[in-house]
Specification:
The termini are far apart. The chain is mainly alpha-helical. It contains five helices and three strands; from the N terminus they run ααβαβαβα. Helix content is about 50%, strand content about 10%. It has a three-stranded parallel sheet, with helices on both faces. The longest helix is centred in the first third of the chain and has 21 residues. The radius of gyration is 21 Å and the shape is extended. Helix 3 links the parallel strand 1 and strand 2.
């Protein structure tokens, strides 16, 4: 017996609401303060460029909003691969952030034979 499409959608929506209610009930139990230490914003290009200027403006606003310093760390080289590699290999705790560009996220994959 086939269940009509509308009925399946309604059942799926009810299941999502019920599953979401369970997640909201336990949300306060797992909430943690963030950030509790300085944030490192890696810019994979030299200081003084357009991405560096944008990163410093963003860093200043994040410092004001979070109450923790945001340190700009310029790591130029290899079309952004050096900085991106540093962030990819850092601890996955949310305290190291990459300000990427089109080259670091899309173009370098087709330019370089072996990516770090």
């Amino acid at each position: 017996m086939r269940v009509p499409l509308l009925r399946r959608c309604i059942i799926a929506a009810i299941a999502c609401v019920l599953a979401g209610g369970v997640g909201f009930a336990s949300l306060p139990a797992c909430a943690q303060a963030y950030p509790t230490k300085p944030i490192r914003l890696v810019v994979p290009f030299p200081p003084g460029g357009s991405l560096d200027v944008v990163a410093r403006a963003i860093g200043q606003k994040l410092t004001e909003a979070w109450g923790q310093p945001v340190v700009i760390d310029n790591r130029p080289g290899a079309g952004g691969n050096i900085g991106a590699d540093l962030v990819a290999k850092s601890a996955p705790d949310g305290y190291t952030i990459l300000e990427g560009a089109l080259s670091t996220h899309a173009v370098n994959v087709s330019l370089y034979r072996k990516m770090p």
